[in-house]
Specification:
- There is one protein chain.
- With 212 residues, the protein is mostly helical.
- 73% of the residues lie in helices and 0% in strands.
- The protein has a single domain (11-208), classed as CDP-alcohol phosphotransferase transmembrane (TM) domain (Four Helix Bundle (Hemerythrin (Met), subunit A)).
- The longest helix is centred in the C-terminal third of the chain and has 30 residues, at 179-208.
- The protein is globular.
- The protein starts with 15 loop residues before the first helix and ends with a helix.
């Protein structure tokens, strides 16, 4: 399947299971915007589970596993809404809005929740701000006619992969006192990679504009 230049390149988009699932959703008249809203629900559920597990409101292992599940289900919705819209022929006038706004909200709630879960809210908020910055540089470049730049190493899939791994490691950590440092280290790694990505995108946009 050919990927449009303004779509994030995802190998899973071409997977047979993803194509079948998207076709099934489109065949049942599930709207892409509805899938986007479901992604918000999964992200908020995962975000709520992280501090709940970290602070003992629910079993810690359950909290971190639910957090990881919420992250991955959010990403699944992020992929399926585009598949149903484009390949399923269900694009709408409000599709771009529902494609972008939920992403920013989902990134923010998950990263900030992880910060509160590990006792370092500043790390979570910094990650959230940097995530918005990388998206802004990408969107700004597109608004100038320079195309969408999805370069790594701290793009959305990479941030969410690291956060998922951090949650899984925290869930499997045999010593409860090590759980906060695991998430804290994960968040600061995400912050560093996301800052690097924002700088890379800005430099690449600068070059595209003919100044280098």
């Amino acid at each position: 399947m050919e990927i449009a230049p303004d779509r994030r390149p995802l190998k899973t988009r071409s997977a047979a299971w993803a194509q079948r699932l998207a076709a099934a959703l489109a065949g049942r008249n599930v709207s892409p915007n509805g899938i986007s809203i479901a992604g918000i629900g999964f992200a908020c559920g995962g975000a709520a589970a992280l501090p709940a597990g970290a602070h003992g409101w629910i079993h810690p292992v359950a909290g971190f596993l639910l957090g990881a599940a919420g992250i991955q289900l959010r990403l699944l919705c992020n992929m399926l809404d585009g598949l149903v819209a484009v390949e399923g022929g269900k694009k709408s006038a409000t599709g771009d809005l529902f494609n972008e706004m939920p992403d920013r909200l989902e990134d923010g709630v998950l990263l900030v929740a992880a910060g509160y879960a590990c006792g370092d809210p500043s790390a979570g908020w910094l990650c959230a701000v940097l995530a918005v910055l990388t998206a802004y540089v990408r969107s700004f470049g597109a608004s100038l006619g320079k195309g969408q730049d999805f370069c790594a190493p701290g793009a959305k899939p990479h941030r969410m992969f690291l956060l998922t791994v951090g949650c899984l490691v925290a869930a499997g950590c045999p010593v409860a006192d090590l759980t906060p440092p695991v998430l804290q280290i994960t968040l600061w790694a995400i912050a560093a990679l996301t800052a690097l990505t924002a700088c890379r995108r800005a430099v690449r946009l600068y070059r595209k504009m003919g100044n280098l």
